[in-house]
Specification:
Distance between the termini: 50 Å
Number of strands: 0
Length: about 100
């Protein structure tokens, strides 16, 4: 699985973690480790015993993103500002 040069959304879909029809599964850590290490970056992935039997649903809880639609709510629109009088360019070095 090649993940570099993909957007966050594309990676999420490719890993099958963000779909509305999400099916829980035990994560194949070896596959992810091979994928990350094949990118030949300065970072090296390895096994962590704490997560060896982790399910994808456990990981989703720690991502900091609400994926359960029951937990979301619509924000009211905030104040509207007239942006027509804003300068085309602004350089703080020249203005301060």
């Amino acid at each position: 699985m090649k993940l570099n040069k993909l957007s966050i959304d594309e990676i999420c879909v490719k890993l099958n973690m963000c779909n509305d029809d999400f099916q829980d599964f035990i994560i194949d850590h070896d596959e992810h480790i091979r994928t990350v290490n094949s990118m030949k970056t300065t970072w090296h992935a390895g096994k962590n015993n704490r997560f060896l039997t982790t399910k994808a649903s456990d990981v989703r809880k720690t991502l900091g993103t609400v994926v359960d639609k029951k937990w979301t709510f619509k924000l009211s629109s905030g104040p509207q500002y007239d942006v027509s009088d804003l300068p085309e360019n602004f350089d703080s070095r020249a203005n301060w």
